């Protein structure tokens, strides 16, 4: 690196240097002076200043990448749930101390600026947040990676409560400025849709087919920095925004039809207008398929035309890139690459297939059959006619192969067809990804096993080597180092700071679980974190929580399979026993039950459950007899930012999905690493958490996956549990009586009757086991020394759940992309 190419970063890493840079940004970037600057002005200037410090590293990373042409990962994901950027950028660049001091010399409080940042909520939940953790880890591990996704103008909706019911508001996250992005309108690429396919005679005399699109839009890239932790590497996240090819029709405008004049523009820009808020029940909406093809087509084109050097021989593409498909959303990339190679480059089919089938790998994030995306062929054919043809041809070849392998098993062949025939003819995207991908992975051991043995069983028999597991992980930078500064300080004091990039080092804390003084400090930190969230909730919502209680926390999307209702039945049962006088409040472990959950706007039962949680919460919180001992908090709009203060305060982590339904979970890992104990079923990554931490430090309950299957096969009758279990009956009767709805029995009737007559996720079957496990929790909590010992061991044994480890597994098992040496 020459001296000239490092203007800011190396020369001005001092408090004075930072202050100068900051004031310059405030004056020349925001156009205000300090005395008149709003908090938002200060935040924007601050963000840009920090950005400058990373810039040299970013440019250097790009330059070296161009030079080395090392094998990279392109992480294709319709969602990146990034969370706030400022703190992460400060941490990565090692500027925290300088900045804090510099700002305070100007009379500015860094915390106030932090709070001014609106988080980019460009994802629904697990899968989107996982993508954000993964790109953080790859940057930190010096692995070349480019993230490709969608720049939604509106992210995941803002949740508010009106009388306890969820009301969604648009998430206008760009309204106050977006200092972390770099738009490149000059690098926009055209993405086509619709039209038809024609046959023509090419120059070489061969008859070929090509797409004659009906309409197109521009994809404008917005680049984001993805800084590694203190290693000087800055990878890129490229999010695409849709723009019309022509702004508007001047002739129509002049004739006075203003709405018509901008129609095309509005239509095009709708593609990236808003994130679909369905998590795990995709709606087969045309706009959603448009979004998927839009970002994937732009990304492939960008990679081939811009990232690869000129003249690159695409036969070598598999040596240069892995396109990782984050769930089925980007799977349309497979026929798109075939189309590019066959139609645009003129390759023959077999050559194109041989390259394409080496470039992609697919991660599945679900076990719910309804979450596996399927696109009706009439819709797909209308929007992407050539891609549909290509998919049919891929399927023809695949079925022919299968018939050779299974000559007498036409039933199996049909089962495995990429094209489903019922209820409508449709493309099964997971099957397409499995046929074309080099690998298919689940996200926890149990999940991968169930994929192999059940969901994709035919495929795992046919392609035994394709199937693998990579257990999820979370980034310790954001979810420990930043989210829990007090605990981080204690850990660093005990074992040094190497754990931030090598989380296995946490095992060094094991002996300290036996050290009374260490445990005392650990407890003190937990209490401190409870006060911290109590302050946040008091300021944000005016909610009062008592830090001197057990924090029992369940935060995740609202879904029946996750069983928030089971948690609720526990609470209602406790309340019922106390108010009916069968249980003395003095003998109840004081608890604060905390929920956080958004429901998909169209998921009515989930929204009712939110209403019920709030109604029960209101009743309990208003009961003077319970004051200070039992309370329920449900802060609206649970998001990454709230998670960062809530999780470090938790004592008990609720991971109570029905066994065999939660693919992995990642919240469970964040809680563990922040010293909460888990009450959980044998599901997803809970299985691995329990194995690592040990049975004595984990509260296991409930049916196992095979038991669930047996029970369902035998015929599950939830009402039988209601009839034979008195406390369950009393709890359900209390809800049904209208006790939480001013006597109105109709309000929560659908929830009660669903539980009694359907209960798809066996909440009633697991009720008693859950109550018993909660009694074990109470007993354990009564001994603070033993509890803290377990909590410390949870941290010490949680190193496996770093997303750095997940990335190593992807690299070893799927990508084979070695890190490049640091600059
Ligand atoms: C989630 C899974 O539900 C969760 O168990 C997992 O930890 C997470 O992905 C990351 O792998 N799934 C989703 O968010 N969405 C879909 C469509 O599965």
UniProtKB/TrEMBL annotation:
<dbReference type="GO" id="GO:0004645">
    <property type="term" value="F:1,4-alpha-oligoglucan phosphorylase activity"/>
</dbReference>
<dbReference type="InterPro" id="IPR000811">
    <property type="entry name" value="Glyco_trans_35"/>
</dbReference>
<comment type="similarity">
    <text>Belongs to the glycogen phosphorylase family.</text>
</comment>
<keyword id="KW-0328">Glycosyltransferase</keyword>
<protein>
    <recommendedName>
        <fullName>Alpha-1,4 glucan phosphorylase</fullName>
        <ecNumber>2.4.1.1</ecNumber>
    </recommendedName>
</protein>
<keyword id="KW-0808">Transferase</keyword>
<dbReference type="InterPro" id="IPR035090">
    <property type="entry name" value="Pyridoxal_P_attach_site"/>
</dbReference>
<comment type="function">
    <text>Phosphorylase is an important allosteric enzyme in carbohydrate metabolism. Enzymes from different sources differ in their regulatory mechanisms and in their natural substrates. However, all known phosphorylases share catalytic and structural properties.</text>
</comment>
<keyword id="KW-0663">Pyridoxal phosphate</keyword>
<dbReference type="Pfam" id="PF00343">
    <property type="entry name" value="Phosphorylase"/>
</dbReference>
<keyword id="KW-0119">Carbohydrate metabolism</keyword>
<dbReference type="InterPro" id="IPR011833">
    <property type="entry name" value="Glycg_phsphrylas"/>
</dbReference>
<comment type="function">
    <text>Allosteric enzyme that catalyzes the rate-limiting step in glycogen catabolism, the phosphorolytic cleavage of glycogen to produce glucose-1-phosphate, and plays a central role in maintaining cellular and organismal glucose homeostasis.</text>
</comment>
